[in-house]
Specification:
By secondary structure, the chain is mostly beta strands. The protein contains one helix and twelve strands, in the order αββββββββββββ. The strands form three sheets. A four-stranded antiparallel sheet has the order 1-2-3-4. It has a four-stranded antiparallel sheet with strand order 5-12-10-7, with no helix packed on it. A four-stranded antiparallel sheet has the order 9-8-6-11, with no helix packed on it. The radius of gyration is 19 Å and the shape is elongated.
Length: 160
């Protein structure tokens, strides 16, 4: 079972309302449990012991009443000209090179093509993500330390 299949299974379990799923193959076993909005994944650390850690927060299913709208961020006059900087891989998004350093970019920052805008961790490797356009960061679409998917928009940039 590869990482993408595991991520899809976690999303399915979280959305389906099932409280526990256990899958066992030849030399692989995974247990996915939900408690409220929290999803836990257990995978063998060694043959008989298991490591359990929370994987991600899952939003609860929408109730009958629609949620209150979030406060609107000031938007540029023409959103059709905005360019999305997208994730080139699946992994975990980090807005800074290390916990004690400043963020790579903030809303309003001017960026240049080739400038590092974030880091995505995939399989214990930290990959610097570079901007493909010159412009100004208008919106940051991802929270720090959250999972991202391939081709998922990370930033909206107003081209220069």
């Amino acid at each position: 079972m590869d990482l993408k299949q595991i991520q899809e299974l976690i999303r399915f379990v979280a959305k389906s309302g099932v409280s526990e799923v256990e899958i066992e193959q030849k030399d692989f076993k995974i247990v996915i449990k939900t408690q409220g909005e929290q999803v836990y994944v257990s995978a063998p650390q060694q043959q008989q012991s298991f490591q359990q850690a929370p994987v991600q927060q899952i939003a609860p299913a929408p109730a009958a009443a629609p949620p209150a709208p979030a406060p609107a961020a000031p938007a540029p006059k023409d959103e059709s000209k905005l360019v999305a900087v997208k994730s080139p891989m699946i992994g975990t998004y980090y807005s800074r090179p290390s916990p004690d350093k400043d963020v790579f970019v903030k809303v309003g920052d001017k960026i240049t093509k080739g400038q590092v805008v974030c880091v995505i961790e995939a399989m214990k490797l930290f990959n610097e993500i570079e901007s493909e356009v010159n412009g100004t960061i208008v919106q940051i679409l991802v929270d720090d330390k959250t999972p991202v998917e391939y081709d998922m928009p990370l930033f909206m940039v107003e081209p220069a």
